[in-house]
Amino acid sequence: MSQSMLNMWISFIGMALLLLSIGLILLSRHKLRGWLAGIVSLLAYLSLILGGIIILYIVFSGPTS
Asked: What single-letter DSSP state applies at residue 24?
């Protein structure tokens, strides 16, 4: 697998984490209450941070040849 294809799959994982965090934040704010909402929102914010780090890595790693 070439470096370009690997970067593509890594960026897809980062975008999926960002979309997952959106869904989990909406779920925890509108449907859940109590400690379960806290756990789900913590998981959402962790996936948001991890997805953001992955996307920043892909963007700043530059083009591949």
From this structure: H
Q: Assess contact for 40 and 28: CB atoms under 8 A.
A: yes
Supply 65's token pair: 């040849």
* pTM for this predicted structure: 0.89
Concatenate the DSSP letters of all residues of 1-65 into one string.
Answer: --HHHHHHHHHHHHHHHHHHHHHHHHHHHHT--THHHHHHHHHHHHHHHHHHHHHHHHHHT----
Cβ atoms within 10 Å, residue 37: 15
Joined tokens for residue 10: 């890594």
In whole angstroms, what is the distance from residue 44 CA to residue 20 CA?
A: 7
Splitting the chain (65 residues) into consecutive groups of 10 residues, what average pLDDT does each group show? 93 98 97 96 98 96 84
